[in-house]
# Entry
Amino acid sequence: MPIISYFFGITIRMYHDDHPPMHVHVEYQGYIALVSIITGEIIKGTLPQKACHIVKEWIMLHQDELKHDWELAQKFEPLEKIQGADYD
# Structure
């Protein structure tokens, strides 16, 4: 599963041809969650509160890029990296 962003120890991934709703897979210090691209809310799993807040802010800031990657993933095309919240 391609890593599309990494920041503050948080890994953001997206599967090719994944199921709706549009989401990303987030991993942080042993926590795993599916997070909505539309709302930034956790769909499944858990994250610490601070990581959850950072991820939600990042998703809202990069929502158009995430939607574009989602469309690419549905067509099994290479995904584009997205700048992290730490600007790396």
